[in-house]
Amino acid sequence: MCDLCAPSFPEDKTYEQLVRLVTEHLEPQRSEIAERHVFRLRRQRPGESLTEYLQALKHLAATCNFGKCTTCSTIEENLRDQFVSGLASDAMRARIFAEKKIQYKEAVELALALEAAERHAEVSGSTGASVTNSSSAAGDGGSAEGLHYTRGPGGGRDERGVRSMQSARPRGGARPLLGRDWMQALNLKQITLNAIRDDNFVNQLCKDFPEVFSDKLGTCKRTIRLQLIDKEPVYVRARPLPLALRARLERELARLEADGAIYRVEYSDYGTPIVPVVKSNGDIRICGDYKTTINPKLKRDFYPLPRIEELFASLRGGEKFTKIDLRHAYEQCLLSEDSQPCTAITTHMGTFAYRRTPYGLSCIPEKFQKLMEETLRGVEGCVVFLDDICVTGSNQREHIRNVRAVLERLSDMGLTVKFDKCKFLQDS
Question: Which portions of the sequence form the region Disordered (predicted)?
Answer without folding.
Answer: 123-174
